[in-house]
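Schema walk-through. Below, the input block comes first and the output block second. Nothing else is stored per chain. Lengths vary across the set, and this one has 137 residues.
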Amino acid sequence: MKNRATVLCVRDGAILLVARERARWALPGGRIKRAEPPEAAACRELEEETGLIVSRMSYYFQFRGFSTIHHVFVADLPADAVPEPLNEIARCRWFAPSKVTSLSASVPTRGIVELFVLHVTTLEKAAGSDVIDEAIC
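--- output ---
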């Protein structure tokens, strides 16, 4: 199994997705290099793909894909952060989580977003919607 650092960037209820030229939408991220901590890989990949520099990432969960283990992190983005497609990435765009199911998106991206939405919905029911922004942003 390959190991991948995958990043959830959430702002105003939308999730950042990236895509290469003529490829499916995906969450930012990439391969974890040998002896590289997963959080460092997540920060590196996010910066390489979008130019976004974050001071903090929070480990969210592990997601098993077909041949890849995704170490999923939530990025703590600065309020003025603007993603730009860099290197192999041709497009960066914010999507409402409900739109991801109708996009041409990777299977792991759909699964991770679905689990994220389920978790947020559970938090909302348990604690009220005011707690959600604090919990994920």
